[in-house]
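Complex record, two chains
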Amino acid sequence: MVERIAIALREARRDLTPTAAVCLVIISLVLLAAILAPFLAPYREGEILTTGSFVSPGDGLLLGSDYLGRDLFSRLFYGLRLTVVVSFMIAFLAFLVGCSLGFLAAVLGGRFDMLISRLVDALIAFPAIMLALIVLTALGPSIPVLVVTIAFIDSTRVFRVARALGVDIVVQDYIEAATVRGERFGWLMWHEILPNALVPLAAEFGIRFTYAILFISALSFLGLGVQPPQADLGVLIRENMQGLLYGTFSPLYPALCIAAITVSINLLVDWYLRRNDAASPEDLQ
Amino acid sequence: MTSNVIDVRNLSVDAIAKRGERTPIVQDVSFSVAPGRVVALIGESGSGKTTISLACLGYTRPGCAFRGGEILLDGSDVLQFDLARRQQIRGVDISYVAQSAAASFNSSLSINHQVTEIPLIRNLMSRDDATRKAAALYGELDLPSPETIGRRYPHQVSGGQLQRLMAAMAMMCSPKLLILDEPTTALDVTTQIEVLQAFKNLVRENQTSAIYVSHDLAVVAQIADEILVLKDGRMVEYGSTETIITVPRQDYTRQLIAAAHVMPAEVKQRASSGDGAPLLSVSGVTAGYGRQREVPALRDVSLDVRVAETVGVIGESGSGKSTLGRVISGLMTPWKGETLLRGEPLAASLKQRTRDELRDVQIVFQMADVALNPRHTVAKILGRPLAFYFGADRKAIESRVGELLELVGLDPAFARRLPRELSGGQKQRVNLARALAADPQLIICDEITSALDTVVAEAILDLLVSLQDRLNVAYIFISHDISTIARIADRVAVMRDGEIVESGPTAEVLRPPHHDYTDLLVRSVPDLKVGWLETVMEHRRRTGQQAAGN
C-alpha cells in the first residue's frame, strides 16, 4: 500500500504542469496560513492598535489598519482560517450526506430512488442563496447553523453527481458478482462503488469546496454569515469597504485571497481530471 | 509488382506512451493483395492485425505512430500522403468494415442516410443514384426487401443484417480494397455463415480485393486466398490458404489450427462420475422481463445437474441460456417453477438464500474485464469471498489466496496486482479463482471463453477439466459455441427461444441423427477446410433450413 502511494506520488510529480505547480504552492500556503494563523499573525484578532481608521501601511502594520484600527494583516490570517475551516466542514458534510444518499439511490433504485431524486429536484429548484437567507434569518446566523444549512443545500448537488456515477457503476458485472455473493448495501456502496467513483468525486469535492468559500463569503458580505467580532474573508471585505473612499486597498486584500484560492483549486481540479482521463485522444498526441 | 492493389512493405508501427517511450506493436510486416484476391490477417488479440489493417488507410489509433515501411496503393505510398489526400482515398479507394456494426451505426439516422453518406459528401453521386446503388448492393448481399430496408433505422434490423449493411456502405464507391475487421465475430454461428457467404459473393462479383481480419482460422479458410499469420506484431507465416491449413510450417500456426473452433471428428462421451441424485434440479421454470411479464425469456425449462458433472447449455443469442444461469444463481426471480439444491428448494431471490446456499452456487461471468472491480487488487478480489463465507482471518486469507492462484495456474505474486495489470486469460483465471474461493458445489460458467483468443480459451478449458477432477465441482457451461461444448460437456441441453429443444448425453445429442435445430447448429460450425462454406450453403438450399431470428 505504502509502496503504491509512493509510486503514485512520484508519477504525479512527473506529470505536474507549471500551472498546476503554482496552484499547488498557493493552496499549500493558504492551508499553512490557516492552520498556523495564531502563530503567524503578528497581533491578536480583535486587538485595537491605533485610534485612526484605515491607517496606511507601515509602522508595524504591514497592510495598514481597518476601520477600527485593528491590524488588517493579522485579521487576514484569522479570516482565512475561518473561511477555510468552515468551507471544508461544509464540503465534507455535503459529501457525506450527498454520496451516501446518491449511492444508496443507485443501489436500491426503484421507489427509493424515485422518491429521493424528486425531493432533490424540488430542493434544487429553489435558488440556493434565497434558501440560505430564509433559513439563516429564521434560525439566526451562527456558525453551526451556517455550516448545516449550506451543507444541506450543497448535498443536493453532490447527490446528483454521486447518483449519476453510481448508476453507471451499478450495472457493471463486478457489482453483479458481489450481489450474487450475497453482499449487502454497505459493502456495495463503500467497497465496490466508491473506489470507482473516486476520481470524479475528488474533483467534485474541489469544486464544492470553492463554491462553499464563495457562498459563505457572499453571505458574510450580506451580513448573514459570520458575525463580528469574528471575521471571515467576506466580513473583512464588508467591514473595509469604506476604505476605498479613503484611498486604501484594504478590502482588496481579502477579495484577492478568495480569488486566489478558488481559481487555484479550479485549475488544480482541471489538471487532476485531465491527468486521470487518458482516454481523451487529444491528450495523447 | 505494381499490378497489386496494395503492397505493404516492411511496415512498422509503434505505440507511444505518455512520456514518449516507444514500444513496437507491428514490426517489419510485408504482404500484397492482388486484384480480386482476399488476404486474411490472422492472430490473437494484440498481434497487431487491426493496426495493420488501419495502417492501409493511412491511419493509426491515438497513441500510435508509424515508424517505417511503405504502403503502396497503386504505386504511391499512402504513408507519405498529407491528411487531405488520405481522406480522399478513405471510403473511396479503400473502405473499412468494423467489427461491431451495432456500435458503428448511428441509431438516430436512417440506414440509407448513413450508407450513402460518403458518395454524397464527396459529390460523387446524386442522392437518387446513391440510393439506387445502395438498393442494388442490398440485393447483392441477400438482404430482405432491398428497396425499402434502407428506410429503416439500425435498431429495426438484426445484427447479421446490420453487418451486411455496413459492407454495403463500404462498397458504395466501388473501392479497390475492402478491409473487413472481424466482421462475423459478434454474430451467431448460423448467421455467421450467411454473412460470410454474402461477403464472398460481393467480393467475387465486384472483383474487389479484400483484407479479412480474424482470429478464427476456420472462418478465414472459407473466404481467403492467402493467409498471413501474425503474432506479437511479427509475421509468423504467409502463404496460400490451402498450404497454411494443410501443411503449416510454424509451430504457432499448428497451435492455432489445434485450437480452432471446429467440431471434433468424433464426439466422445466423457466417463461421467455423475449418477445418483441430482445436485441441482431446475423444474418447470418460466422467467422473463417486463413489469407486466410481457417478455418471457424462459418457458417451462427443466434441467438436472449431478455432482461433479458438466452440463453444457447451448443456444444462439436470445435463446434464454444466460437467463437460465441468472435464475439458478438467484439474480433473477422466476415467474414460475422452482430450483432444488440437493433436494431442498432454493429460495428464488438472493436475499432469502442462506450464506451456505449462496456459497454452493457460484457464477463466473463472460467478460473478465468488467467482472473484476478495477480498483481492487487480486488479493482483495479473492480474499473477500473467504472473509464473507468463512470469516477467515487475515493470515488464513493470505495463504489461501496464494493457494487459489496456484490452483488456477498463476503465480502467487499476482495477488498484489490490479486487474488492468493482467492479460485477458489471466483475468479469466482470477475470475474463476474467485468462484473457487467459495468452495462451491456448482459453478455456472456463462460464456467464459467467448471473449478469449482460441489458444487462451483452450488453456482455460483444460483448467476447468483438471479442476473438476481435483475438486469434484459441477459446471453448467453456457456457450454459443457448440464445438467447445462438445469437448467439455457430459450432457448437453440445446436451447431455442427460451425452451430446451433437445437434451441428453453429449454423444447422443451431437452425433447424428440430430434434432432439426441441433443439426442446423452443428452444420454451422465452420470446418477447417477450403470449400466447406459452399457445401453447407448447398445443403441449406436443399433442405430449406433457415437460421432463426433473421
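Note: Chain A has one domain: 2-278.
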